[in-house]
Design brief:
The chain is an alpha/beta fold. It has eight helices and eleven strands. Helix 2 crosses helix 3. The radius of gyration is 18 Å and the shape is globular.
Length: 257
Amino acid sequence: MTAFGGYARYYDLLYRDKDYRAETEFVDRLIRTHAPGARRVLELGCGTGIHGTLLAEQGYDVVGLDRSEDMLTAAAQRVTALPQAIASRVRFIKGDVRDFQVEGHFDAALALFHVMSYQLTNDDLRAVFAGVKAHLAPGGIFIFDCWYGPAVLTDRPTVRVKRFADASTCVTRIAEPTLHPNLNRVDVRYHLFVKDERNETVEELSELHQVRYLFRPELELLADAAGLRIEASGAWMSDQEPDFSTWYVYFVVKHRN
C-alpha cells in the first residue's frame, strides 16, 4: 500500500489530539509578519482540509491541493458543514505537489505537516520549489515545515505505539522506523489494527511512509536555484532557534522580485 492509502480513512482519528487551531494561528502570524495584506493562499498537501478551512475562517481565500482521493473526499465533506460565507472561500482540488497548475497567483503557499519531507529526491524538492515560485505573486511567501536533520540524527527515531478510539472504532498504530543515513531518509512502516467496536471485527493495514530529513544549507541551495530566499526559520510553533533536539522546523521562503 502506498502512503496515505487505507491510512487516510483513519487519519483524523489518529491525529485528533493535534492542535490544528493553534497551528493555524501560528501560520497566520507568520503570514501577517512576512506578507502583510496577504489574502490568497495555496496549500500543498492539504490532507483532510482542517488547516485550509481554519484559514478560511480567518478570512483567507484558500485553494488546497492533494493527490489522495480519500483525503479530498474528507476535505469536501468538511466544507459542507461550514457556513456559506466561509465555504465560499475554500476549495480543494486533486494534484501532485511536484507538478501542478492552479489558475492565478497567490500571496502565500503552505506545505504543512512535513509535506516537504515526503519529497525524497533532489528532483522532487526542486520541482516543488519551482512550482511554488511559478504560483507566488511577487513578494509572496512559502511556509513549510520538515523533519530537521541535526535532530533526527541526534535523537534517532524509535518504535512507537499510538492508540485512539471514538464511539465505534479503536485504532492501534505501531510505527517501526528504519534509518538510511546515506539517503537522508527514514522508512516508517505503519501497522494499523482497527477494531470495529460494534461487531468486534479487526482490520489490519500496513503502509510504508518514506520521509526525508532536511538541512538548512541544502534548502538554501534549492530555494536559491528556484529564485527564492529563506527569510526565517525556527522550531515549529515557536520562535526558538533550531538545535539538536528540534525534530520539526519551519521555514519561511520569499519570492525574490
